[in-house]
Amino acid sequence: MSTTTVTRSVHVTPTDRTSSLRRFFCVAAQPDSYRNIAFLLLGLPLGTIWFAVLVTGISVAVSMLVVALLGIPMLVALFYLTRASANVERRVANALLGQNLRHWSMNAPRRGNLWARLRAMTRDRDRGRELGYLILRFPIGVATFTAAVAAIATPLMVAYAPIVARHDEHPFGDWALSSRMEGVASSSPWSWLLVPFGLLLLIGSFHLLNAIARVCGRWATAWLA
Q1: Distance CA 33, CA 155 (A)
Q2: What's the pLDDT score for residue 19?
Q3: Of 12, 54, 64, 199, which sits with the fewest C-beta atoms within 10 Å of its C-beta?
Q4: 102 vs 86, 92, 128, 220, 222, CA distance in Å?
């Protein structure tokens, strides 16, 4: 028996190349890119609020368990607050990341007195995931905020460097390499290449931030859906 291997060659047409280039450069004109950046920037203020309120609430409520009449209602109220805060995060993810997360009910999984509600809430895995998401929103929010600011500011600084170096004194501060950087950016004709290079970096930053936002969207869906 003979085996015949058929090899198919894939031809990349000029139209395909043009389409790829258009997708690469037009990312800065897409509204989704700016919504993604807004979500990454909101990670710091929202994460700070959730972390401060929830950690403080847990600490106070647990310490007040010695006086059961105070500790139990505080923990129950904390679980209601967790659900309300998680619903805010769901709306933010839906509006900025294009997710489809439904609004969860504020009702306890079991009716009854405060103790029965507290036991039911502590055994509810969905509320546990919500609490974990809100607490982790702070360190992850710090990281996404830092990444967004650095990814946008750095390319703009690179593109603006030849201009500011020719008009301002000591634009790069006073450190070991500042004088050398100032000399290159202000006197060399090649320094003008930093402008298109910085803009190209900015386009790449949009793609990077969009990728980070997609990961955040998957995380929100996995923990809040």
Answers
A1: 16
A2: 74
A3: 12
A4: 11, 12, 17, 12, 13
Query: Cα–Cα distance between 109 and 117 in angstroms, integer?
Result: 7
> Global pTM?
0.81
Cβ atoms of 96 and 41 closer than 8 Å: no
150 residue type, one letter: A
Written as six digits, the tokens of 89 are: 């995060």
Q: What average pLDDT does range 195-213 have in this prediction?
A: 92
Q: Average model confidence (pLDDT) for the chain? A: 81
The two tokens of residue 180 are 């050398």
Quick one: 219 exposed, middle or buried, by C-beta within 10 A (0-12, 13-18, 19+)?
Answer: middle
Residue 124: which of 104, 99, 101 has the closest Cα? 104
